Amino acid sequence: KAGVTQTPRYLIKTRGQQVTLSCSPISGHRSVSWYQQTPGQGLQFLFEYFSETQRNKGNFPGRFSGRQFSNSRSEMNVSTLELGDSALYLCASSLDSGSVTDTQYFGPGTRLTVL
Amino acid sequence: KNEVEQSPQNLTAQEGEFITINCSYSVGISALHWLQQHPGGGIVSLFMLSSGKKKHGRLIATINIQEKHSSLHITASHPRDSAVYICAVLSNTGNQFYFGTGTSLTVIP
């Protein structure tokens, strides 16, 4: 099975722009979670999608949003980019058999640089 | 205060040594994950624990729910074990993930 894929892998934007990142989960996985990783804050949970619905959300401003499509692919969007949004954005998928303790499989990440 | 604390922050070991990384958390949890991140960013989920102990090859993870503490042990460490190890907990209220700041492990041949 192919792993979790994320596109693009690298992205450079300027302040005030918006960006859309894409994540394709492992085939058959229904849950997709997004994380932000920065040197200062470490890994932080953004949100989780299941069956096209946001099921859980971390403590991020409304500029960060996401969605999930019927094929479980997910996108996250950041509007009005700020310098502090520069980070590695990771997505992870899981089977979601009904247990909250399913193993998560991580993608390689998208490295976003905001200038 | 961080919901998840890891120690040590950095660790250097000689090849073959037994290694322990500790994780303490302050919230009620549904599960605890140990993650491994190699240079370049790729993250691998090593273990998911909700009780007891799990073993996979040279890796052993334990959790004590009453004490809110987990340990990751690496036996017969090898240079390829060099990575950042991150403890993550899934809270049982709000299904929120909290992460430790990671332990950077370097194993010297």
Tell me what the structure shows.
Chain A is mainly β. Chain A contains no helices and eleven strands. In chain A, the strands form two sheets. In chain A, strands 2, 4, 5, 6, 9, 10 and 11 form a seven-stranded mixed sheet that branches. A four-stranded antiparallel sheet of chain A has the order 1-3-8-7, with no helix packed on it. Chain B is an all-beta fold and 109 residues long. Chain B contains no helices and eleven strands. In chain B, a hairpin with a 5-residue loop joins strand 9 and strand 10. Chain B is globular and about 45 Å long. The termini of chain B are far apart. The chains are: A mainly beta (115), B mainly beta (109). The interface between A and B is medium-sized, with 24 and 23 residues.
Class from secondary-structure proportions of chain A: mainly beta
Shape of chain B: globular
Helical content of chain A, roughly?
under 10%
Order of helices and strands of chain B: EEEEEEEEEEE
Give the low-confidence spans of chain A: none
What is the β-strand count of chain B?
11
End-to-end separation of chain B in angstroms reads: 37 Å
| Rg result of chain A | 13 Å
Strand content of chain A: over 45%
Work out the largest interface and the residue count of each chain: A-B, 24 and 23 residues
Radius of gyration of chain B: 13 Å
Global structural class of chain B: mainly beta
List the defining traits of the structure above:
heterodimer; A: 115 residues; mainly beta; seven-stranded mixed β-sheet; four-stranded antiparallel β-sheet; 11 strands; globular; B: 109 residues; six-stranded mixed β-sheet; five-stranded antiparallel β-sheet; 0% helix
SSE topology sketch:
The complex is a heterodimer of chains A (115) and B (109).
Chain A: E1 5-7, E2 10-13, E3 19-24, E4 31-38, E5 42-50, E6 53-57, E7 64-68, E8 74-78, E9 87-94, E10 105-106, E11 110-114
Parallel strand pairs in A: 2-11
Antiparallel strand pairs in A: 1-3, 3-8, 4-5, 4-9, 5-6, 7-8, 9-10, 9-11
Chain B: E1 4-7, E2 10-14, E3 19-25, E4 29-37, E5 43-49, E6 52-56, E7 59-64, E8 69-74, E9 83-91, E10 97-99, E11 103-108
Parallel strand pairs in B: 2-11
Antiparallel strand pairs in B: 1-3, 3-8, 4-5, 4-9, 6-7, 7-8, 9-10, 9-11
